[in-house]
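Handout, page 2. Input:
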Amino acid sequence: MMEDLPIDTSHPAVREYLALIRLQVLTPLSLLVNIATLMVCTFVLDPNLGTISELYPSAISPKPYMIAIFIVAIYVGQVGYCVLLVLSRKPETKRALIKGCGFPLVLANWVMAFWAISWILQAFLLSTVLLGVLLGLLLYANVVLLIYHAPSGKRPLDIAFIHAPLRTFLLFPLGVMFPYSLFVTLGLTWSPGEPQHYARGQWPGMAVMLGVNLLGIVVIALRRDIVWCVAATWICASIWSEKPKPYPVFAIAIAFTVLHPTALIASTIWVWLRGRRRTGPIALPPDNEGVPNGPPHGERPAREVDAEAIWG
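Output:
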């Protein structure tokens, strides 16, 4: 059917245009499916997503309502992404949408919808696998954006509605849900009526919290990433605010709640001070007062050239 169209579909510009049209249809559709599935699993079914999380407390289980607010922030960012997908005019923005994160984001929304269903069915092994796939898709999209479509101050809308939502979405499985689902699958939980067993899995929980948040500190310090800082701080707060918690996990969550914004502020100040040092006073060369006119000492005077002798 594509060969019957009165246009050359093999032309790169035409192919990019068709890919953009597909994304303008598939991305809002996948987002609507994602939102509808999570709303049904939260407000219609019983037990809902938050109730199941409370039935399986672990050393790194987060506060359900704080994760719900985090997911709402992801959805708000994706709504802006869909608007930018329709209204974008700059070729750099279109390339970032088409070749950077377009189809991985569509797949990520579908995977998150299936994850919600698996969580409701308490199929935790399937939930962990789906969260691993979601993490891989979002990690790929963020790496491609960072390498080939880096954020630029000349395109603030790209930063606000492409890079920020994708980075926030990445931290949903990376920072909390994939490790938590893995802990539930491995049985590193306790019964809600037996809080005396809350230390079960504390050392693996401490290792997970330490590894994920050290990675966040490196990203924040090197890139001065405000989005990562806010998202990671919120996730840490959601973990230590859910009681009871073993002391090693609680202490690390509290520490990184403070260290993430501290790393951002320190990195910003360091870059500002380095800029000040580079743009200091410029030393001008001394005036050649008292030096006689003519060529400097040791330098040969310019030769006079006979133009007629050269050109005839």
